[in-house]
Design a protein that fits this description.
Length: 258
C-alpha cells in the first residue's frame, strides 16, 4: 500500500454513465492484484474523501479503473483530463486468487461488478484457465467490456434486465442455467448484495459445494480499516472490515442479509 500522486493518462466514457480512467503508477508501487482496489481523489477540493474503485487492468506503469457516475464526487472525477494529477492510495484490500488445480473458472459479474472480473481475466491471461463468464447489465446502453470476456472465455454470456441485449435475465440465473456446461472448479463473483445473496441461495438450493469467492461492494471512508465505516457481518457473529479484511471473502463466511 502506498499513497502517491498519479497522472491521468486517459479518462473517457465507456458506456452509459460509466467512465474508464487510466493513470500512471509511480515507481515503488507493489502488490497489484486482481480484485484489489484503489482509493483515489476526484480531482477537486470540494470532495475530501477519496473514492474506492476496483482495479480493472494494470501493469508496471499504469492502472485502469472503471467507475459509475453516481454523485457529485464521481461526476467531478469524470471531468478529469489527461495530464491532471490525483492523489491515490494503492493497492488496497485482498484480491482473487485461483489455485493451480482450479482449471475451470466461473466469473459472475453484475453492473460495476463486471470490472473486477475483467481484472481476473487480465491477471490470468495465458495461465491455462478455462473461463466461463456470466455478465449482467441493466440495458443495452450499459453493456461494456464484451470483447474482453468473449476473447478470453470458453463461454461468455451477456444478459440484460430488460432483454434489450443478449438474454433477458440476471447473471446469477444465467450461471445456474449453464452450470452443468461450465462445471467450474471455483466461482468468483462481484456485484450488488442482492445479486450475491441470490448466488448464495442458488448454490444452496442446487447443492453446489464448489469454492466460491465474492467481492463485496460497501461504502468506505478511509479505505485502510481505521474508520470502520465498511464493516460487514460474518456468519460466526464477528464483523469484518470490507476494505482491510476484504473485499474478497468466501461466500460461506459473510452474512449477505446484512
Amino acid at each position: 500500500m502506498k499513497e502517491c500522486k498519479v497522472k491521468v493518462l486517459e479518462n473517457a466514457p465507456l458506456a452509459a454513465g460509466i467512465y474508464r480512467m487510466r493513470f500512471s503508477i509511480p515507481d515503488g508501487v507493489e502488490g497489484l492484484q486482481c480484485g484489489k482496489f484503489v482509493n483515489i481523489s476526484v480531482g477537486d477540493g470540494a470532495h475530501l474523501l477519496r473514492r474506492p474503485i476496483a482495479l480493472c487492468e494494470y501493469d508496471e506503469k499504469s492502472a485502469t479503473i472503471c467507475y459509475q457516475l453516481k454523485g457529485e464526487g464521481t461526476r467531478a472525477m469524470g471531468r478529469a483530463q489527461a495530464g491532471d494529477e490525483l492523489t491515490c492510495v494503492l493497492p488496497l484490500g485482498n484480491g482473487f486468487h485461483i489455485e493451480e488445480g482450479q482449471r475451470r473458472v466461473a466469473l459472475i459479474g453484475g453492473g460495476v461488478g463486471v470490472f473486477p472480473m475483467v481484472s481476473v481475466l487480465h491477471a490470468y491471461k495465458g495461465a491455462h484457465k478455462d473461463f466461463y463468464s456470466y455478465i449482467g447489465f441493466r440495458s443495452k446502453n450499459a453493456v461494456c467490456m464484451e470483447n474482453a470476456f468473449a476473447s478470453q472465455s470458453i463461454r461468455s454470456v451477456i444478459v440484460t434486465d430488460d432483454g434489450s441485449y443478449g438474454y433477458q435475465g440476471n447473471a446469477v440465473q444465467a450461471f445456474l442455467d449453464d452450470y452443468a456446461n461450465a462445471a467450474p472448479d471455483v466461482i468468483l463473483a462481484c456485484g450488488p448484495t442482492p445479486m450475491l445473496r441470490a448466488l448464495k441461495a442458488g448454490l444452496d438450493e442446487n447443492n453446489i459445494a464448489v469454492p466460491c469467492y465474492v467481492s463485496l461492494e460497501e461504502r468506505m471512508g478511509c479505505g485502510i480499516g481505521a474508520c470502520l465505516v465498511c464493516t460487514c457481518k460474518k456468519l460466526d457473529g464477528s464483523r469484518a472490515r470490507v476494505c482491510k479484511d476484504g473485499p474478497v471473502f468466501p461466500i460461506g463466511e459473510v452474512d449477505l442479509h446484512g
